[in-house]
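Per your request, structure below.
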């Protein structure tokens, strides 16, 4: 694990070393990104993290349903109840926890549509403090202490989903 504020690249587009696929999503490498278009599932980090900053880029089409799950309690079973799901879902039926929100925890303060373009998430988790920035706009700043440590996971549930440039730095 990177210490003292050093950014560590977890995914650079060239390989899935350090990741484990869970589920049936058809993850495929290409053009510096990993893409899924069918099935459902996750790419789960092999390492666990407690206090960190996570930066990544994602591209989704409008109907896409995806998310970044952090501090997962069970790496074999990732859910929006045993981890924090920072949602990527512009067309979610219940818009309360749409793109930029943390499902069941915090609604996004800004309505930002992510479909059809590359977007940047910056996720800060330190103790109970959770901060989410989407494309430079803070969408969540909250405190919640349900989950304190665990791997994180990139989700595929619907549409076309791409991730690239995944980096993390420890805040220990």
């Amino acid at each position: 694990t990177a210490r003292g504020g050093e950014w560590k690249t977890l995914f650079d587009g060239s390989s899935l070393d350090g990741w484990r696929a869970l589920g049936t999503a058809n993850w495929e490498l290409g053009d510096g990104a990993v893409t899924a278009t069918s099935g459902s599932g996750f790419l789960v980090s092999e390492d666990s993290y407690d206090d960190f900053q996570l930066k990544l880029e994602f591209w989704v089409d409008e109907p896409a349903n995806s998310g970044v799950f952090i501090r997962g309690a069970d790496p074999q079973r990732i859910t929006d109840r045993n981890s924090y799901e920072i949602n990527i879902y512009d067309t979610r039926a219940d818009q309360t926890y749409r793109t930029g929100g943390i499902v069941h925890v915090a609604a996004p303060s800004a309505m930002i549509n992510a479909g059809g373009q590359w977007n940047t998430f910056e996720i800060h988790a330190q103790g109970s403090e959770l901060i989410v920035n989407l494309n430079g706009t803070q969408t969540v700043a909250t405190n919640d202490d349900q989950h304190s440590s665990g791997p994180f996971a990139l989700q595929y549930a619907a549409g076309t989903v791409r991730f690239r440039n995944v980096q993390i730095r420890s805040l220990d």
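The radius of gyration is 14 Å.

Regards,
D.
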